[in-house]
Amino acid sequence: MKRQCIKVPKKKGETVRRILLELEILDNSVKIGSDEAFLYLPLSREPAPDELENFPEEIEFIEFDFKLQEKKPVPENLLGFSPAYEVIGDIALLEDPELDKQKASRIADALLQTQPNIKTVLKPLTPVTGEFRVREFEVIAGEMRTETIHREYGCRYKVDLARAYFTPRLSTERSRILSWIKEGDTVVDMFAGVGPYSILIAKSKKPSKVLAIDKNPDAVYYLRENIILNSAKNIEAVEGDAREEAKKFAGSADHVIMNLPHSASEFLDSAVLLTKSGGIIHYYGITPEDDLFESSIELVRKAAEKAGRKIEVLDKRVVRSYAPHQYNICIEARIV
């Protein structure tokens, strides 16, 4: 079966395999190929340009005829249906808070039996609530903890899910935002959490500075842990209200990231204050399908006009479906 792969000398094979695992782009559906001199490591996608610097020079991208891996049991085989869950590090998070205890326990047992990377199964007891955007969980099976380390695009994020919000579902979006950043830019992440946007950007070595702000002291604790864990440079973690911090750093930002979709509109005045002339606001919202963008663009425009400034909409996109007839959207607007 033909697959895109990395051809690498055997002496460098383990190094490249580990990099691919960190980036989560090693295709495990087929067996790694080899001959006398080389390994052929199958890819689920090609590395992004910013990821290529992690690899040794000896690699080559080619196609190779791989053999399929023998299929391992999956939860569906044991349950008779596909359970809804997401994996954060080595924790599986069940998506349906209405599951009764018996069904949740069945799903948890199936996950632990078929997914050796999963060590804990959690069920949410509450939605994401409060100014710190956290929720309560129950451990259904496995190790009694809510802390884990999640790997994404070569970064590691330590997080306690009961103390700080984190979702792996925005990994592609975080990489997309990175593509907007140019060398020497100053980036302000107004609602940084444990750092998935800020640290990815800082590790790219593009920006001169990343300012990562969050009001949740637990999130900032893990943010600082993750800065060390990832050896990220040119990044400052700030515990505080984004409105107040904006006054200290007014006019400094080439990019302002506003990933707080339910209430980012309340902080638009501060985002405009932060943004230098020609800087870009990355604004996130939750909108209905019959008004995906226009109302949000108008909110950004009014905030800019209040400060005597104008906007130029550079891009607008649906990030993901959020609920029936509701979408998580992003608007890129230049402030002039």
Structure summarized in a few sentences:
The protein is α/β, with parallel strands linked by helices.
Question: What does this protein look like?
Answer:
The strands form four sheets. A seven-stranded mixed sheet has the order 13-12-11-14-15-17-16. The protein folds into three domains: 2-65, Alpha-Beta Plaits (2-Layer Sandwich); 75-145, 2-Layer Sandwich (GMP Synthetase, Chain A, domain 3), CATH 3.30.300; 168-335, Rossmann fold, CATH 3.40.50. With 336 residues, the chain is an alpha/beta fold. Strand 16 and strand 17 (326-335) form a beta hairpin. The model has no long low-confidence stretch (mean pLDDT 94). It is built from nine helices and 17 strands.
Number of helices, counting only DSSP H or I runs of 4 residues or more = 9
What is the first-to-last residue Cα distance?
Answer: 52 Å
Shape: globular
Q: What value does the Rg take, in angstroms? A: 22 Å
Keywords: Cytoplasm, Methyltransferase, S-adenosyl-L-methionine, Transferase, tRNA processing
GO biological process, one term: tRNA N1-guanine methylation
Organism: Methanosarcina barkeri 3
Domain SAM-dependent methyltransferase TRM5/TYW2-type: 85-336
What is the topology?
Elements: E1 2-9, H1 10-23, E2 33-34, E3 38-42, E4 60-65, H2 75-79, E5 85-88, E6 91-94, H3 101-114, E7 120-124, E8 137-142, E9 147-152, E10 155-160, H4 171-180, E11 186-189, H5 196-203, E12 209-214, H6 217-229, E13 235-239, H7 242-248, E14 253-258, H8 268-274, E15 275-288, H9 294-306, E16 311-323, E17 326-335
Parallel strand pairs: 6-7, 11-12, 11-14, 12-13, 14-15
Antiparallel strand pairs: 1-3, 1-4, 2-3, 5-6, 7-8, 9-10, 15-17, 16-17
Helix pairs in contact: 4-5, 7-8
